[in-house]
C-alpha cells in the first residue's frame, strides 16, 4: 500500500462520538483524513443490521471523498458491504485466514503492541502495522501499557523501512512531530477527532501539522 494513506488515519464507532457519527465522519473527510476504519465495539456498540446499516452509510461517505474504508475485525461485514480492507488485532482472525477470504487488492492491517508482534505481522504479510498504544488512552478499555516514543522507535528499527507503520493511542496534535521523527508514516486517531466539538477544525489542524513534517 501507499504509506501516505496512513498519514491521518481516523478510526471510529458510534460510541466514540458526542454527536451523530455520520456528521463526525463527514467533517473529518472534508478536512482531509486519508484513511478510515469503522470500529464498532465496546459498550453500546451497534449490532447486526444496525451495525451493517451504519457501516454502509459510512462506506458511501468515504467513497464520495475517495478515502479507503476499512472494517475492524468483522470479515463477514467487510465482505458483505465491499469494504476496501480490514484491520485485525492480535486476538482476532489470523491474517492468513483473512487473506484467503478477501479480494487480493484489500488493505490488511494488523495491530502490534511490541516488537515481537510487529516483526511477526510483517512476516505474515500485513500491508501495514498499527503500533501502540504509544501514549495512555481511555478509548480502548483493554489497552496495554503505553510503549512511548522509545517503543515506537524500537519497533521501526526492528521491522525496517519497507513496511508502513501507523502510531496509535492517546495521540494529540502536540505529538505529531515526534511521532513522525520516530519513524511512523502517520497517526491513527479516535478521540482527538471523534470527541472534538468541531471534528472539522481538529482534523484540519492535525492535517496541517502533519503536512509540515511530511513530503
Ligand atoms: N488500539 C490501541 S490504542 C487504541 C486502539 C484502538 C485507542 C486509540 O484511541 P485514542 O482516543 O486516539 O487514544
Ligand atoms: Mg480486534
Automatic annotation (TrEMBL):
<dbReference type="GO" id="GO:0000287">
    <property type="term" value="F:magnesium ion binding"/>
</dbReference>
<dbReference type="InterPro" id="IPR022998">
    <property type="entry name" value="ThiamineP_synth_TenI"/>
</dbReference>
<feature type="binding site">
    <location>
        <position position="72"/>
    </location>
    <ligand>
        <name>4-amino-2-methyl-5-(diphosphooxymethyl)pyrimidine</name>
    </ligand>
</feature>
<keyword id="KW-0479">Metal-binding</keyword>
<keyword id="KW-0808">Transferase</keyword>
<feature type="binding site">
    <location>
        <position position="92"/>
    </location>
    <ligand>
        <name>Mg(2+)</name>
    </ligand>
</feature>
<feature type="binding site">
    <location>
        <begin position="37"/>
        <end position="41"/>
    </location>
    <ligand>
        <name>4-amino-2-methyl-5-(diphosphooxymethyl)pyrimidine</name>
    </ligand>
</feature>
<dbReference type="InterPro" id="IPR013785">
    <property type="entry name" value="Aldolase_TIM"/>
</dbReference>
<dbReference type="GO" id="GO:0009229">
    <property type="term" value="P:thiamine diphosphate biosynthetic process"/>
</dbReference>
<feature type="binding site">
    <location>
        <begin position="137"/>
        <end position="139"/>
    </location>
    <ligand>
        <name>2-[(2R,5Z)-2-carboxy-4-methylthiazol-5(2H)-ylidene]ethyl phosphate</name>
    </ligand>
</feature>
<dbReference type="InterPro" id="IPR036206">
    <property type="entry name" value="ThiamineP_synth_sf"/>
</dbReference>
<dbReference type="GO" id="GO:0004789">
    <property type="term" value="F:thiamine-phosphate diphosphorylase activity"/>
</dbReference>
<dbReference type="GO" id="GO:0005737">
    <property type="term" value="C:cytoplasm"/>
</dbReference>
<feature type="domain" description="Thiamine phosphate synthase/TenI">
    <location>
        <begin position="8"/>
        <end position="193"/>
    </location>
</feature>
<dbReference type="Pfam" id="PF02581">
    <property type="entry name" value="TMP-TENI"/>
</dbReference>
<keyword id="KW-0784">Thiamine biosynthesis</keyword>
<feature type="binding site">
    <location>
        <position position="140"/>
    </location>
    <ligand>
        <name>4-amino-2-methyl-5-(diphosphooxymethyl)pyrimidine</name>
    </ligand>
</feature>
<feature type="binding site">
    <location>
        <position position="170"/>
    </location>
    <ligand>
        <name>2-[(2R,5Z)-2-carboxy-4-methylthiazol-5(2H)-ylidene]ethyl phosphate</name>
    </ligand>
</feature>
<feature type="binding site">
    <location>
        <begin position="190"/>
        <end position="191"/>
    </location>
    <ligand>
        <name>2-[(2R,5Z)-2-carboxy-4-methylthiazol-5(2H)-ylidene]ethyl phosphate</name>
    </ligand>
</feature>
<keyword id="KW-0460">Magnesium</keyword>
<protein>
    <recommendedName>
        <fullName>Thiamine-phosphate synthase</fullName>
        <ecNumber>2.5.1.3</ecNumber>
    </recommendedName>
</protein>
<feature type="binding site">
    <location>
        <position position="73"/>
    </location>
    <ligand>
        <name>Mg(2+)</name>
    </ligand>
</feature>
<dbReference type="GO" id="GO:0009228">
    <property type="term" value="P:thiamine biosynthetic process"/>
</dbReference>
<dbReference type="InterPro" id="IPR034291">
    <property type="entry name" value="TMP_synthase"/>
</dbReference>
<feature type="binding site">
    <location>
        <position position="111"/>
    </location>
    <ligand>
        <name>4-amino-2-methyl-5-(diphosphooxymethyl)pyrimidine</name>
    </ligand>
</feature>
<comment type="function">
    <text>Condenses 4-methyl-5-(beta-hydroxyethyl)thiazole monophosphate (THZ-P) and 2-methyl-4-amino-5-hydroxymethyl pyrimidine pyrophosphate (HMP-PP) to form thiamine monophosphate (TMP).</text>
</comment>
<comment type="similarity">
    <text>Belongs to the thiamine-phosphate synthase family.</text>
</comment>
<comment type="pathway">
    <text>Cofactor biosynthesis; thiamine diphosphate biosynthesis; thiamine phosphate from 4-amino-2-methyl-5-diphosphomethylpyrimidine and 4-methyl-5-(2-phosphoethyl)-thiazole: step 1/1.</text>
</comment>
